[in-house]
Amino acid sequence: MAERLRLGDLEVRYRIEGRPDAPWLTLCHPLACDLSLWDAQMAALTPHFQVLRYDLRGHGGSSAPPGPYSFPLLVDDLLGLLDALGIARSHFVGLSLGGMIGQYFALTAPERLGRLVLASTTSALGPEVEPLWRKRIARAREGGMATQVESFLERWFTAPYRLDHPALMASIAGLICATPVEGYAACAALIPTLDITARLGAIRAPTLVLAGELDSSTPPAMAELITLSIPGARQDVIPDAAHLCNVEQSERFNDLLLEFLEPQSH
């Protein structure tokens, strides 16, 4: 069952599942989603870890204080949550926006991080994407989050998968629509500002970088740049998957996570 706690101006919704005596593993979701985005991972992870998942500032059951937000602020939210729960050190899996936060987390508080998994993410998009994101934010402010559903689902899943899973598409559309416009706008505005590639060489955590083979938003070439920039990082490309590879190819995604996070058991 999800719980809530207050961190300064923010109320955070979180959920803890798994083995109380096991290492901690924190899961951080993408833009316009919430902690339920990890449902397909829980059966695989909870026998091995004490799993913390939470809703980002401005998302799901967490509150949406007015923007602007920053990546350091989102990392402060994470560290505040870990502190409040008495978690000294955790593995971390972040997907898309969650992976951007993961890179900052690894640089900000390396002593708090075990192993790092960065999925469907990038270390820099470049200023050329700023007008695109500005337009998306404007549409959301004018017409609500329903204006984002069609384009997000097209980027997040391959066409055959969308056609074969209408109920799941409706559920994910519900997550998008339930995202507070203010939270979406403040987090979306961060994405074009991301430019952290030159700092990644300082990351010392063992790192796995995952990409969906058919992901147009953060294609495998972006994952490769992260992999080459972080000392000792390894990369896997998940076939027949677009952006939300943890959903579209959950079995493969879960296998890769466990193989990396629990190498002694594989």
UniProtKB/TrEMBL annotation:
Membrane-spanning parts: none
Pfam families for the chain: Abhydrolase_1
- Give the Gene3D superfamilies listed for this entry: alpha/beta hydrolase
An example molecular function term from Gene Ontology annotations: 3-oxoadipate enol-lactonase activity
**Occurrences of domain AB hydrolase-1 (ranges):** 23-245
Q: Which GO terms describe its biological process?
A: beta-ketoadipate pathway
Query: What PANTHER family is this protein classified in?
Result: AB HYDROLASE-1 DOMAIN-CONTAINING PROTEIN (PTHR43433:SF5), HYDROLASE, ALPHA/BETA FOLD FAMILY PROTEIN (PTHR43433)
**Which protein are we looking at?**
3-oxoadipate enol-lactonase
